[in-house]
Write a structure and sequence with these properties.
Pathway: Amino-acid biosynthesis; L-lysine biosynthesis via DAP pathway; (S)-tetrahydrodipicolinate from L-aspartate: step 4/4. Its main location: cytoplasm. One of its GO terms (molecular function) is oxidoreductase activity, acting on CH or CH2 groups, NAD or NADP as acceptor. This protein has 264 residues and is α/β, with parallel strands linked by helices. The protein folds into two domains: 145 residues, NAD(P)-binding Rossmann-like Domain (Rossmann fold); 107 residues, Dihydrodipicolinate Reductase, domain 2, CATH 3.30.360.10. Helices cover 33% and strands 23% of the residues. The chain has eight helices and twelve strands. Bound molecules: NADPH dihydro-nicotinamide-adenine-dinucleotide phosphate (NDP) and the ligand O=C(O)C1=N[C@H](C(=O)O)C[C@H](O)C1.
Length: 264
């Protein structure tokens, strides 16, 4: 697999480059960062103290000839890459979070021309948790208040996390509702009593926390909590490589990590 990495000098970009050069079935084909970044023109593996011969570029023509790009950047960057990938016939793994509705629609539309795996969380554990939440929400569907709490490092720019949103969607899938109709994204001041059937979100930021998520089902006399804690970003990089293998040979279609892991 000839793999291009977007956001090559970012936290996830570096994890992905390390995972790609260690994988026997993968080749680091290109590394991208945005124009003006100090990293442009430097070797993509310089941070590991070695040379790969792949220089970090901002010109998206570097994608020509790649099989797939793995993109963990920002919505505006991913949407630029999406256009280039359609032009060059390059498949995409999208880990970026924080898209608005128009951004999500652009990804879905592009999947008619290229094959895309997009997921707010690429880890095996979190995708299993999504399934567990569907089961829990199906059983605890009356008399239980659902609250979702997440904590991430101080550099994270979007809230709540994509994973927290996807956890909310797993719950509302079991309830046959739309998350946007029941979500309470934050609380402040005299909020009034909690409304039954809503899902509350709380986002904590600090230090170097990689990603903690807890979904609380609070009932009368008991509380069920489903928690996932990430302790190393390699889980997202390894999940992305599994997604790249899953896309090999595919030319169109929109998939998620549950498809990749056979959980659908
Ligand atoms: N789905 C999943 O499993 C996971 C998703 N994520 C998501 O991945 C994204 C990146 O996270 P993280 O690596 O921590 O972030 P970083 O800020 O460390 O890295 C982002 C990288 O993208 C680059 N970038 C920013 N804006 C653009 C743009 N407009 N065009 C091209 N490149 C751009 C940055 O360049 P510069 O430094 O010059 O700004 C940087 O190299 C986030 O949305 C995060 O939520 C993170 C972990 C797991
Ligand atoms: O920004 C991060 O770091 C992470 N972002 C993703 C999210 O928004 O859910 C996945 C993971 O939690 C780490």
């Amino acid at each position: 697999m000839k793999i291009a990495i977007a956001g090559a000098s970012g936290r996830m970009g570096r994890m992905l480059i390390e995972a790609v050069i260690a994988a026997p079935d993968a080749q680091l084909f290109a590394a991208l960062d945005r124009a003006g970044s100090d990293s442009i023109g430097t070797d993509a593996t310089a941070f590991l103290g070695k040379n790969s011969g792949v220089l970090i570029a901002s010109d998206l023509a570097a994608l020509d000839g790649a099989d797939v790009i793995i993109d963990f950047t920002r919505p505006e960057g991913t949407l630029e890459h999406l256009k280039a990938c359609q032009a060059y016939g390059v498949n995409m793994i999208i880990g970026t979070t924080g898209f608005d509705e128009a951004g999500r629609a652009a990804v879905a539309a592009a999947s008619e021309k290229i094959a895309i795996v997009s997921a707010y969380n690429m880890s095996v554990g979190v995708n299993l948790v999504f399934k567990l939440l569907e089961i829990a929400a199906g059983v605890l569907n009356q008399g239980y208040d659902v609250e979702i709490v997440e904590m991430h490092h101080k550099h994270k720019v979007d809230a709540p996390s994509g994973t927290a949103i996807a956890m909310g969607e797993a719950v509302t899938k079991a309830w046959d509702k739309a998350l946007k109709d029941v979500a309470v994204w934050s609380r402040e001041g005299i909020t009034g009593e909690r409304q039954d059937g809503t899902i509350g979100f709380a986002a904590l930021r600090g230090g170097d926390v990689i990603g903690d998520h807890t979904v609380v089902f609070a009932g009368a006399g008991e509380r069920v909590e489903v928690t996932h804690k990430a302790s190393n970003r390699t889980i997202y990089a390894q999940g992305s490589l599994r997604a790249a293998r899953f896309l090999a040979g595919k030319t169109a279609g929109h998939f998620n990590m549950k498809d990749v892991l056979g959980l659908n």
